[in-house]
Amino acid sequence: MKPFFSQITHAPFVRKYTLIHRFSTVLAALALSVLPAMAQKAPAKKADAAIKYIPGDAQMVMSINIGQLLKKSGHETFLDLPGMKEAHEDLKQENELAAKFLEKPELLGIDLNQPIHLFGKAIAPEDEFGEPTAWGGIVATPLSAKKFENGLRQLAQAGGDAAAGIAGALLDNIKKEKGFSILAGEGIPAAMGFNDNVIAIIGGDPNVLENAEAALHKALAAKKNLAETEPTFKGYLDGDVDLGGWINVTELMKLSPEVPPEQIDQLTKLIGNLRLAGAVHFDPGAAVLDMFYSTDADFMKKLKPAGKKELVDLIPQNALGSMSYAFDMVNSRKWMKEEYLPALKMIEGGEAIAFAEIALMGALGLNFDNLLDIPKGEFMFTFIDMEMAKDPDFGFEQPKPKLLFGMTVENQAHVKTIIQKIEEQGAIDAMAEAGFGLVQNKDRFYIGSNELLDAAKLGRLPNAIKGANRVVHTGNEMAMTIDFNQIIRIAQDFDAPDEAVAILKKFNQFQVLGNLKKGHYKYEMKLLFGDKKTNGLKQIIDMAQELADQDIFLPDDEEAPQVIEAEEAIEIK
Q1: Which of 171, 327, 408, 534 sits at 20 to 30 Å (Cα–Cα) from 461?
Q2: Could you tell me if 514 and 521 are in contact, meaning their C-beta atoms sit under 8 angstroms apart?
Q3: How far apart are CA 119 and CA 109, in angstroms?
Q4: pLDDT in tens, 268-327
Q5: Which residues, at least 6 apart from 3, have a Cβ–Cβ distance to it below 8 Å?
Q6: Average pLDDT in the 345-374 region?
Q7: Distances from the Cα of 140 to the Cα of 27, 119, 197, 238, angstroms
Q8: What's the 3-state SS for 230-248?
Q9: Nearest in space to 61 (alpha carbons), one of 70, 51, 69, 47
Q10: Helix locations, 425-480, DSSP H
Q11: Interatomic CA distance for residues 225 and 234, integer angstroms
Q12: CA-based Rg of the chain, rounded to a whole angstrom?
């Protein structure tokens, strides 16, 4: 066989403590009740009005669209999920009202076909050995203010007579202020406001959030919110978000007691305030992860869109996997040389950079500045095939990759210096024995399988990528594609189990695409299925169920490929 690869504020009165505890329990139950995968039928999708109530100083946000996920999974209701009808019957025996909410979640009065957003902000401790504190909250969309209030009253009953009495007293004292119904109380570390457009809850450590109601009013009246002030967050919400999150990396770094504030200040001056976001969404025939990052650093504002790609003609149509990347090397090089590297050498631990540069000089004959002078701005790589080839040393066949790497070059003299240096170390001869070589050609440099180098000199492969596959690479600054048809072919060549091949046949292509747009970078990771009509989430669920229903065994030890050690191979030869 061939080888196959609150502590609540301490109160002296038991009644006050009980009041706080019961109200907090109701709020917690409300939050938890909207998190399971359930949904109700709703009218046509409307704009997410709740996002404008996320405070502008929030440092992190998590979003989930429960109804959308449920529908994409191929199930209409929560009880349609495997095993849930049996669980629902058991729940009826314990808490009939809770079972009723599971059966008809619309009774909660929350629009589960709109995203629910959880947000928070952490506060650094005042002393060196203290723990960070935090406040946060939830914003969601109600079916209506009246339906949500009715849902609150029914939810309060789930906690028993005592909880229902306390929560009922609070609900009977709901305040109407500036178009919102406000639910808050003295000493309670959380407050809620709602109307026909939004449900907003804010709470936290009493030592941080002394007045939850005041914080709630501030959020409800804010003229600037996160979606308006943060480009990465806005870009993250522009898409069809099923599940995702956003964080302010720079602010969270300040919470680490191990990173001195001066280092964070230096880093911020160097790369700006960094934000990251990620969003998952499922489409017909696809599962997609979108990643975003932005920074307000001056150098980012100077970067220009990448020029036209010139190396795509060296990517074949039938490659197993390929990558192409083009970017503004002129401005990137200027920033690296004039700002980034000098700053790294100045911060604590910067001596490590100097030692690394000395080691680099010894290995390649170039320093960091010299290396930065080499690239012109475009790179390509293609992994075409995996073939069996006879090993010249041991005399038996081994898998050998067929691949090509290329790049545009600004300074060929520095490339030549590297080649001469590694040639002295015997690396060139070793590459030749393995069937690989390298080529310098005008403003190009290539390294790869010998049989591809002649085509590389001409700048085009006879079976160069075309059609939709070509558009993927030419229409994005960064593109990576993996072709499952080629993976299947290789898997079959190496005697992969039929069950594994059957799973591979469900996929078509994996893509990673990257572009600079609207003040932030966006990277998309797409898993494309062979079935282009069925939603990707349903296909993943069905596939997981299929795998759970069958066992894919690896070969027994006696049947598994035997690895021959080098010493044994020499004796055989």
Answers
A1: 327
A2: yes
A3: 21
A4: 877 888 889 999 999 999 999 999 888 887 777 778 877 789 999 999 999 999 999 998
A5: 399, 494, 561
A6: 85
A7: 13, 11, 9, 17
A8: CHHHHHHHHCCCCEEEEEE
A9: 51
A10: 427-433, 450-458, 467-474
A11: 11
A12: 30
| Residue whose entry in the numeric block shows the structure tokens 């790179």 | 379
Interior/surface letters 116-127, b for 16+ CB within 10 angstroms, e for the rest: bbbbbbbbeeee
| Alpha-helical runs (H) found in 378-523 | 412-424, 427-433, 450-458, 467-474, 484-493, 498-504
DSSP state of 191: E
The answer to whether the beta carbons of residues 38 and 168 sit under 8 Å apart is no
What's the Cα-to-Cα distance from 486 to each of 380, 482, 505, rounded to whole Å? 19, 8, 10
Distance between CA 254 and CA 123 in Å, rounded? 9
* 155 burial level (CB within 10 Å; 0-12, 13-18, 19+): buried
Closest CA to 115 of 66, 75, 42, 148: 66
Block residue for tokens 């709703």: 42
Token readout for 410 is: 């600004």
DSSP character at residue 392:
T
Q: Contact, 296 vs 279, CB < 8 A?
A: no
Q: Using a cut of 0.90, tell me whether the model's pTM lies above it.
A: no
177 neighbors 191 (Cβ within 8 angstroms) = no
The CA angle 346-348-351, to the nearest 5 degrees, is 70
Element at 119 (helix H, strand E): strand 116-123
Return the structure tokens found at 187.
């000493």
pLDDT at 186: 75
Helix %, strand %, coil % of the chain (to 5): 40, 25, 30
For residue 17, give Cα distances in angstroms to 166, 211, 237, 492: 12, 17, 40, 67
